[in-house]
Design a protein that fits this description.
Number of domains: 1
Shape: globular
Radius of gyration: 17 Å
Number of helices: 7
Keywords: Hydrolase
Pfam family, one: Thioesterase
Strand content: 15-25%
Domain Thioesterase TesA-like: 20-232
Family: Belongs to the thioesterase family.
CATH topology: Rossmann fold
InterPro entries: AB_hydrolase_fold, TEII, TesA-like, Thioesterase
CATH superfamily: Alpha/Beta hydrolase fold, catalytic domain
Order of helices and strands: EEHEHEHEHHEHEHE
CATH architecture: 3-Layer(aba) Sandwich
Oligomer: single chain
């Protein structure tokens, strides 16, 4: 698998399922290192490293959500003989994961076993208000509002200067994204969200049900947009259950823990 685009964490068991993880706006592959520790050795985490950040900061960012998904789908098609895989996308990453899965199914390629879509409302024909931000000040205000363990870095001007280019590019991609009608996914979906998320309500997250023909499960955690910082072990259990046994959810909505 292309090491430029996919970063491997952990030392999994032979033939372990791969969890392809898609970062949030401004995020990078390293955001999924903690989850990989929770899932090893049963699941191998391969996190997507978007261009325009960290060691890829000198590369031009992707032009949009679908353009990013097209590259990732192509890389996965090239690696079609590998182990089975599932997708996990947080916030903006949930959209990239969804569009990547759509492309794989449209092309007749091997689809993910399951999609885990976190902290993101089901998409619609127009961008969401939170995705349409006019300038750097608005972006920084929005990111601070979302909170999370990395929120403190936005008080450091040097760190802000480092992350702003990626944030600008990602919010531009979000502002330019609108859902286009098409066939529902064949893969089952697990939706994860925080009950106090300031930009995604539980009802909006529940809207993903209509985007797949398969079963949909909704898991609601105490917390905000970055609820998974607090409930990482429980999130790992949801992933293991969703891909590892026939007892995975059958369409209900559960509030955890």
């Amino acid at each position: 698998m292309d090491g430029q685009w996919f970063r491997r964490f952990g030392d999994p068991e032979p033939d372990a399922l791969r969890l392809i993880c898609f970062p949030h706006a401004g995020g990078a592959a390293s955001a999924y290192r903690p989850l990989s520790r929770q899932l090893k050795p049963h699941i191998e985490v391969r996190a997507v490293q978007y261009p325009g950040r960290q060691d890829r900061r000198h590369e031009p960012p992707a032009a949009g959500i679908r353009e990013l998904a097209a590259v990732v789908a192509g890389k996965l098609e090239d690696d079609d003989g590998a182990a089975p895989f599932a997708f996990f996308g947080h916030s903006m990453g949930a959209l990239v994961a969804y569009e990547t899965a759509r492309l794989l199914e449209q092309r007749g390629a091997r689809p993910p076993r399951r999609l885990f879509l976190s902290a993101r409302a089901a998409p619609g024909p127009t961008p969401r208000p939170h995705d349409q931000l006019a300038d750097d000040a608005a972006i920084l205000t929005a990111v601070r509002r979302l909170g999370g363990t990395g929120a403190a870095l936005f008080d450091d001007p040097e760190l802000v200067a480092m992350v702003l280019p990626a944030l600008r590019a990602d919010y531009a991609a979000l502002a330019g994204y609108s859902w286009t009608p098409g066939e529902p996914l064949q893969a089952p979906v697990t939706v994860l969200c925080g009950d106090a998320d300031p930009v995604v309500s539980v009802a909006e997250a529940d809207g993903w049900r209509t985007y797949t023909r398969a079963e949909t499960e909704v898991r609601v955690f105490p917390g905000g947009h970055f609820y998974l910082d607090q409930w990482l072990g429980d999130v790992a259990e949801v992933v293991l259950s969703g891909v590892g046994s026939a007892s995975a959810a059958r369409g209900g909505q559960r509030r955890l823990p």
